[in-house]
Amino acid sequence: MxxxxxxxxxxxxxxxxxxxxxxxxxxxxxIVLFWIFVAVCAPLLTRYSPVEQDWKxxxxxxxxxxxxxxxxxxxxxxxxxxxxxxxVLAVLPVTEKLWIPxxxxxxxxxxxxxxxxxxxxxxxxxxxxxxxxxxxxxxxxAMPIILLYLIIVAAMGASAINIVIAISIVGVPGIAxxxxxxxxxxxxxxxxxxxxxxxxxxxxxxxxxxxxxAKGPIIIDSMLRVGYAILPWALLGFLGLGLQPHLLTGAAxxxxxxxxx
Length: 261
Prior knowledge:
- By secondary structure, the chain is mainly alpha-helical.
- Helices cover about 65% and strands about 0% of the residues.
- The chain folds into 2 domains: about 1-40; about 90-260, MetI-like fold (Orthogonal Bundle).
- The protein is flat.
């Protein structure tokens, strides 16, 4: 147990060393920390409410009163940006958890079904199972993304959780195809053959032997998709199916971000 703890400690230290040695990673870290600071300290960084309207100051440019100017309704853009960062930091991590196959929402390793699991099953089973899964994914990819978002959100209602679900469903084909390609490669390895020789069942081989060894590319892809998920949030908001204005009031919902609905 002591050796395992020391090994884990060395792994963390090695990861931090790699992080601090990379200029690109440090720039990214600084940007993330900046927006975390803005989200947490939003009430201290602006005296305006994100929904407060001033018809006498509509469409103004940057000034001492409004750092980034105002929109067509006279709302302070810096206030809306600062409070909007809270939504991104509170909701998008939930989207990321739904993107990583085989990971529970609590963050622990698990065997629950998620968006990449169809690709895992199809890639390992092959044959008609793989054909069925891939044709279903192709059918999803053939539909316009905007139309899928509109159908799902309009059917379920405009709320934070429903938007997260819609983004996760639309992203199923991409992550599933990635998991399938990784599975096709990993299932040819010797330790998979050894597990099959021991008589392990397919469930064990897929979720204990294959999936943990594919987590590197999957996590990287999921982190990239978290950034891309901001675009459908903005798109749905533009179409009137995004979060309602009262969710931007900051202090009223920030402590309850885990219970957004």
